TrEMBL record, chain A:
Domain of life: Bacteria
Region annotation Disordered: where it falls in the sequence: 1-23
Biased composition (Polar residues): 11-23
Single biological process term from Gene Ontology: spore germination
The protein's name in its UniProt record: Spore germination protein
GO CC annotation, single: membrane
Coiled-coil positions: none
Species for this entry: Paenibacillus montanisoli
UniProtKB/TrEMBL annotation, chain B:
Domain (Spore germination protein N-terminal): residue spans on this chain: 25-200
UniProt keyword annotations, A-Z: Germination, Lipoprotein, Membrane, Palmitate, Signal
Protein name in the entry: Ger(X)C family spore germination protein
Topology in membrane: Lipid-anchor
Length: 521, 402
């Protein structure tokens, strides 16, 4: 572990200082007074445990172990704090150093069998440590306390990824505990260069946020920029990484996400190895990755685990799916209301026959269908599982069958909506998929007003906008804009691992990834 | 402030959309009357055009809606001085907007063909609504309106049936070319060539061709057939090439894809069917002593497909003899075609174009009197036929010996 690396729970100097809700001042030397104040600061919380006892050695000096029952690992407290302090085998304290200070040092040096301890003398930090789940030891007559890391309590076990599923590849995913999450990443990158910085963000929630990178690969200026933006955040609460994302992203008014997120530790490790920086937030399995380029959203972890031809084919498929889900209904509208001459005659007659008797213009029809599908999808996600099935049955029947039977929509429209929806589902990044879902409506309007001409205008605007996007100084379209052919080995297709010899040069300093002559003979 | 600026910018962008002149002709599908075929003819006693449009009834044709068992298409006819007038005038009869981009077949009447077809093409090239890839046919014997109103089996879309018949006839019978509007125009413009258009004819009882009941029986009282090649001279129908001549034409213009030729089988006349599977033609035209000299080299491959006698097909000399016979037959067809066209002074084979391409200087000299030069051209044909296979049976079952 690098020396610069800070342990969790150590409050950064900046956090909290300007927060009025955090108490100021130094600890007192009187034990009773301190306990009383803790109790009152925490509003006599029922889970606050204050265990007072007399130190067996040191002439029965009164000592208190204080912790929050709900977020500490009780076994740790019992076995390594209480037991060791009360152990009959504890060596005698030398007579001459039985002053409170000497006893305090003695406890720190000899009697506290906890891996990580810290000595604190002010209220701000002490309360913060207490609230993160550490155990505070106070000695009567001394104005410092020692806190031992006993963080525990209920966390979800590491389980299989639920949003980014793979067929082949590691099945673990991040959980809500940041310590676990960092462990998952560290286990993958056994390098002394792996580093992370931790800060606390949120004046009220004091959420642990960690910035992960690999020194020697990451660009220093990007690292500094990320650190600067994270430190600048001043808000009361960070409940999910999405909060952070909105504070640090470059283009708040773009429909495109410029911060990538994943719940897969292997994906985080891969991104770190490309020189990117991961931001982990306590309390959520979703970690952020910056800087972000568009191609990341089309990459699934599995692309790298299956053979390269499979990975390439499926990735191309995803790009196609994105285009379909963005333009599908718009193309239908443009073709059926403006450019009928572009369809094969038989198809046109079929479409025309299907639209016979449909009362609405194609634009309205498409809008109605797309919106009802979006509602159906949203309902499907939020519904309790037991009711979900009913929703899908109703949706399939009403949207697919009854609407056509009733002559409100044409069957072709149902197909268009279905293809669009399925294409949308195959975009691996949910946030980009939503972008496509939203922009689709704009394109439908453009197609409804001006046909392909309108769509083209929209597309020009879209590409111009996407070109203007930057994520921490990196062009969103990189390596397409600026065009770097050498960097395109892992954009639209994934070439074999041995042939991608360089890391992306807009994020990585040390570019060598694969040594020469690795091509199998 | 920044937000306001953005909103203003967006509003400006959107308002720009409205002033740009796009294809502001949004047409809903169910307000369109899709025209799939069109016929043009001269009215009988006046100089007016007689136009007919075949408009599909999508409700009857599409598989998704049941349809009421009505006719799959309707014919609207109109008389007019100009084509465009007629097209717009027809709107008075049709409850929807006529949509011409999907015209697949344009059938020209014989009266119009004889009067000259040049004048109609200007409209087709000028208008953005029609496409130039539509197929051209010339009605033979009956009025073109009748031809596009005939209900035919196997193809609910009648124009598709015409295109299909024409294309398959060109592909596996090679008795007539598939000529699009653009081909015809190109050949009309070029002085070294004349257009040739396939003919369409109705056989059988043509009284009630418009009745849907016709296809409710196993033998409709009539059928449509691609028949012969119309030869034009100066844009006017001059005559027809038929059967052998048509086949010869297809050989010469290198459109021969596959056909069946009957040869004599020992003592039985036409007792052997030869399937041509490949044919390539090279043409060279030059001027010699003021006379055009046309050199045609055809290399073809064929299979013996059927024999009605005990001919020993495993003997090389038998095959060589067959190849020779085949050559005579094919050359006879080609010569017949050329002589037919020469009589009409119509260079449907585009020999002039070849001369223009290969010997531009010589072409300049005869450019103005190419028709006569063509009629007087000396033609030599070299036919190199090769019989490759004799089907899945070796010996004929009628072969008695060995």
């Amino acid at each position: 572990m690098k020396t610069r690396e800070m342990a969790f729970g150590k409050s950064s100097a900046s956090a909290g200082s300007e927060n009025p809700s955090v108490v100021q001042g130094q600890l007192e030397s009187d034990l009773e007074a301190n306990i009383k104040r803790i109790r009152s600061e925490l509003g006599s919380s029922p889970d606050l445990i204050v265990r007072q006892f007399k130190l067996r050695t040191g002439r029965g000096l009164p000592v208190a172990a204080i912790y929050l029952d709900t977020i500490t690992d009780k076994e740790l407290v019992n076995d390594f704090v209480m037991r060791s302090l009360m152990s009959p085998f504890l060596p005698e304290v030398p007579e001459e150093s039985s002053s409170p200070e000497a006893a305090f040092r003695y406890i720190c040096d000899n009697a506290l069998a906890v891996g990580q301890i810290e000595i604190i003398d002010n209220w701000t930090s002490m309360l913060l440590e207490l609230l993160t789940g550490k155990t505070i030891l106070l000695v009567n007559g001394w104005n410092q306390c020692v806190c031992g890391n006993t963080i525990g309590g209920e966390t979800r076990a590491v389980s299989e990824a639920s949003t980014q599923v793979v067929i082949r590849g590691p099945k673990d995913s991040f959980s809500e505990s940041i310590a676990t999450n960092i462990a998952l990443v560290r286990r993958r990158i056994r390098s002394p260069k792996f580093g992370f910085e931790a800060i606390k963000i949120g004046t009220v929630t004091q959420t642990s946020v960690a910035m992960l990178y690999i020194d020697g690969i990451v660009k220093e200026d990007i690292k500094n920029e990320v650190r600067k933006r994270l430190n600048k955040i001043n808000t009361d609460a960070i409940l999910e990484s999405g909060y952070i994302e909105e504070f640090i992203e470059d283009n708040w008014n773009s429909p495109f996400p410029t911060v990538f997120n994943t719940e897969r530790p292997d994906a985080i490790a891969a991104n770190l190895l490309e020189g990117r920086i991961a931001i982990l937030v306590d309390g959520t399995p979703f970690a952020l990755v910056v800087p972000t380029v568009l191609s990341q959203f089309f990459t699934a972890a599995e692309d790298y685990y299956q053979r390269y031809d499979i990975g390439s084919f499926i990735r191309l498929l995803r790009y196609m799916a994105f285009i379909i889900s963005l333009f599908g209904p718009a193309v239908y509208i443009a073709l059926t209301t403006f450019h009928q001459e572009m369809l094969p005659t038989t198809l046109l007659i079929n479409l025309s026959g299907a639209r016979e008797g449909v009362p609405f213009p194609a634009l309205v029809e498409a809008f109605a269908m797309e919106i009802s599908f979006e509602i159906l999808r949203e309902a499907g996600i939020r519904m309790p599982r037991a009711v979900g099935q009913a929703v899908s049955i109703v949706g399939a029947l009403v949207l697919g069958e009854a609407a056509v039977q009733a002559g409100i929509v044409s069957p072709i429209m149902v197909i268009v909506v279905a293809i669009t929806a399925i294409a949308n589902f195959s975009i691996p990044a949910y946030n980009l998929a939503i972008t496509a879902r939203m922009l689709r409506f704009l394109f439908m309007i453009a197609a409804g007003i001006l046909g392909f001409y309108g769509m083209m205008l929209g597309m020009i605007m879209l590409v111009a906008h996407m070109n203007s996007l930057r994520s921490f100084g990196v062009s969103f379209f990189s390596p397409l804009v600026p065009l770097k052919f050498k960097q395109m080995k892992d954009v639209f297709v994934r070439l074999p691992h041995w042939s991608i010899r360089e890391r992306p040069d807009d994020t990585a300093v040390d570019k060598v990834r694969v040594g020469p002559g690795q091509k199998p003979q | 402030m920044k937000l306001g600026k953005l909103a203003l910018l967006t509003a400006m962008c959107i308002s720009l959309l409205f002033v740009t002149s796009g294809c502001w002709n949004s047409r809903e599908l169910n307000r369109l009357a899709i025209v799939t075929a069109m016929s043009i003819d001269k009215a009988e006693n006046s100089n007016k055009y007689e136009l007919s449009f075949q408009v599909v009834m999508p409700g009857e044709l599409s598989s998704s809606s049941k349809g009421g068992g009505n006719a799959p298409f309707n014919i609207y006819s109109v008389q007019s001085e100009t084509l465009f007038e007629g097209i717009r005038k027809a709107s008075k009869q049709v409850p929807r907007q006529l949509f011409f981009s999907h015209i697949q077949v344009v059938v020209l009447g014989e009266r119009l063909a004889k009067a000259g077809i040049e004048e109609i093409f200007d409209f087709f090239e000028r208008s953005h609504e029609v496409r130039l890839t539509s197929m051209l046919l010339v009605a033979r014997g009956s009025s073109p309106t009748k031809l596009i109103s005939a209900i035919v089996p196997l193809a609910p879309l009648q124009s598709e049936a015409l295109v299909g018949a024409s294309e398959f006839s060109a592909k596996i019978w090679s008795g007539s070319p598939v000529i699009g509007l653009d081909d015809a125009i190109r050949k009309l413009i070029n002085p070294g060539s004349e257009p040739s258009i396939s003919g369409l004819r109705i056989y059988g009882n043509e009284q009630n061709v418009t009745k849907k009941q016709n296809v409710e029986q196993t033998r409709p009282p009539y059928h449509l057939e691609i028949s012969g090649i119309a030869v034009f001279r100066g844009g006017k129908l001059a005559g027809w090439l038929d059967n052998g001549q048509a086949r010869g034409y297809m050989f010469i213009v290198n459109h021969m894809r596959s056909t069946i030729m009957n040869l004599d089988c020992q003592d039985k006349p036409n007792g052997l069917a030869l399937e041509i599977i490949k044919s390539k033609t090279k043409t060279d035209v030059s001027m010699k002593n003021g006379r055009a000299k046309v050199n045609i080299v055809v290399s073809a491959e064929g299979n013996v497909a059927e024999v009605k006698c005990g001919i020993p097909l495993d003997k090389l000399d038998v095959l060589t003899k067959l190849e020779q016979e085949w050559g005579y037959e094919a050359k006879a067809n080609m010569m017949a075609a050329i002589q037919g066209a020469q009589k009409l002074q119509s260079d449907v084979f585009c020999f002039g174009e070849v001369l223009q391409r290969k010997h531009p200087k010589q072409w300049k000299q005869v450019q103005d009197r190419w028709d006569e030069t063509f009629a007087d051209a000396e033609v030599s044909i070299d036919f190199r036929g090769q019989i490759l296979r004799s089907g899945m049976r070796g010996k004929s079952l009628m072969q008695k010996d060995g």
